[in-house]
Amino acid sequence: MIADRRVLILLDNAATVSQVRPLLPGGGDSLVVVTSRSRLAGLSVRDGAQRITLGTLPEPEAVALLRAVTRGYRPEDDGDKLAELARLCARLPLALRIAAERAASHPHMRLDDLISDLRDESALWDALSTGIDDEAEAIRSVFTWSYRALPTHSARLFRLLGLHPGAAFSLPAAAALGEATPSRTRQLLDDLVGAHLLEQTAPDRFQFHDLLRAYATDLAQAEESSDQRQAARRRVLSWYLHTADAAQTWLYPSEDHLPLPGPLPDVTPLVFTDYNAAVDWSEREQGNFLPAVRDAARNGMDETAWQLATILWFARPASSSERDWLELGRIGLEAATRREDQRAQTRLLINTGIAHRALNNFSEGLDALERAVTLARSSQSRFDEAQALNLMGLIHLRQRELDLADAHFGQAMSVFRDLGNGQRAATALSNIASTRLSAGRLPEAASVIDEALAAHRALANRGGEGNLLRIAAALRLEEGDTDAARRSIDEALDIALALRDHTREGFWLLTLGDIQRTAAQHGDALTSYQRSVMLHRRLGDRSREALAWRGTGQTYAAMDRHDEATTFHRQAAAVHRDLGDMWQLALELDHLASAVHPEDPETARGHWIEALTHLTPYTDPRATSIRSRIEALLTRAAG
């Protein structure tokens, strides 16, 4: 987006190099400014960054900051005394803000008295400090000075908030931690915001500065007993567990809920009035999901850890990548294994398999699902066994092992029907339709599409309905009915947008781009492929990102812009080769050969010959048709 522009990009408060690198422009004349308390040496070594070390504020600016915050709240203070206050704050902006807020909230207290209080606090910390980091000791003195001025209940909430899994939190989560009503908690939070110990970022949402969070955590360790700390953790994790369970009701209404004990006393989970409210909560809280699961496991709450990991699979935002969940799943699986809970292990292995499939980690996905099948059979859970078999079929489909895929889908569908689970049976039937379409068996695909679509609609399964509409659109396009194809894909994408599901939207946009390209709507097709690239890159699906590049190359070829077509096909071929996907590589080489043929027939011939070698293992009708076409092209070229 910015390769040809001059843009100033500010990345504020970066914690690691890995946070920065994906946001660096690939070229052009843009400038990136990164602020951090870490040195981020890797950016200097590998990326050519110029490091600028910032000192503390100069004394005049530190005094100016104090005056700016206190202006209008107290009489004009003496400049020398403000300079002394600034020195005690080590001229650090955060400490200066806290000190200024304290002075502003006590307009009738002499500045000499405030300075004396802070000097006494500093003397205490000087006596206890090692002298290694004067700035750290100075800012801790300011924190303590401000903390000790808090009312008792506000101070306790501040300590307990240091036990929250993440730096950002909501009013209801704070209420659970503090064993207080939301209205009382709001008053206490207002005290903390007024003292500049917390920042309010939105209505009913707050966050810590990371230094203050560390300070609050230290206070909790020092001033709360082990039992009190554990009880607070249990309350907030109970709130997350039951609120996530409520979100699942809207986000995945067809999925069975885990049987859970009721919320702990003084814990009031949220309830949601509609789908969007549940998604909003999930998107806001996503950054706390992994810390919450990790916190449960670290503090001996294995049952809570695996339950959270399981429910958060169904309560995470539809716009998130499966990669975001994998670490949660690993921690949850370890916790379930420690508890020797086979059903919990099976559930988590199944979700791990889904995540790996989405990320093209097919070997890891099959390994997890095979373990799930073994556990399901040992515990005689036919539903879990069928679910794992269906997912194994999806991996075989992505690897173009079509006979294996069809067999797994058939086994899964048979079990689901025996169990009376109509939705799962319809999902397996949809996968059978997709497998037959991929094989080029169009009449066999068409014969099951209508049945599966009717089943999903009867069950109000919007996601399943959209997937069938996407399959139907691809089928109609191959049959030459672009109008019917466009109606189906538009309906599918409306569903994806309503669900705020970037995975579905990105994948289904590929079919929209194909339809637009076939209809010679080249600009619209390029737009569809470009958004698909962006979404798949964000989701970490390199295979489907490369498919969007393929569509882009085909569109440029249709516009007789063969150089650009060649660039995109080469880019896509490199990804498929890197992923070891020989089927997609063969298709890409075929498109690449067509793009370079007008200018370089000999190079094109080499691409077609290589494509034939990769097509050899495949015997389905579509593969046979492509192989015959390429052989005919090579024969004509030789003649």
Protein described:
InterPro entries: P-loop_NTPase, TPR-like_helical_dom_sf, TPR_rpt. The protein has 639 residues and is mainly alpha-helical. The protein folds into 6 domains: 8-47, no CATH class; 55-116; 120-224, Orthogonal Bundle (Arc Repressor Mutant, subunit A); 225-332, no CATH class; 341-460, Tetratricopeptide repeat domain (Serine Threonine Protein Phosphatase 5, Tetratricopeptide repeat); 544-637, Tetratricopeptide repeat domain (Serine Threonine Protein Phosphatase 5, Tetratricopeptide repeat), CATH 1.25.40.10. The chain is built from 30 helices and 5 strands. It has helices spanning 17-20, 41-47, 59-70, 79-88, 93-105, 111-128, 134-147, 152-161, 171-178, 182-194, 210-223, 226-251, 275-298, 302-315, 323-338, 342-358, 362-378, 382-398, 402-418, 422-439, 442-458, 462-479, 482-499, 502-518, 522-539, 542-558, 562-579, 582-596, 601-615, 621-638, and strands at residues 8-11, 31-34, 168-170, 199-202, 205-207. It has a 3-stranded antiparallel β-sheet. Strands 1-2 form a two-stranded parallel sheet. Helix 14 (302-315) runs antiparallel to helix 15 (323-338), helix 14 packs parallel to helix 16 and helix 22 runs parallel beside helix 24.
How many E-type strands? 5
Please state the second-level CATH architecture of the largest domain: Alpha Horseshoe
Number of helices: 30
Distance between the termini: 46 Å
**What would the principal axes of the Cα set say about the shape?**
globular
Question: What is the name of the CATH class of the largest domain?
Answer: Mainly Alpha
The residue fraction in helices comes out at over 70%
How large is the share of residues in beta strands? under 5%
From the alpha carbons, calculate the radius of gyration and give it in angstroms. Answer: 30 Å
What is the CATH topology descriptor of the largest domain?
Serine Threonine Protein Phosphatase 5, Tetratricopeptide repeat
| Sheet with most strands: strand arrangement | 3-5-4
Please give the domain count.
6
The secondary-structure class comes to mainly alpha
Low-confidence stretches: 124-132
Largest sheet: 3 strands, antiparallel
CATH homologous superfamily descriptor of the largest domain: Tetratricopeptide repeat domain
Question: What do the pLDDT scores average to?
Answer: 91
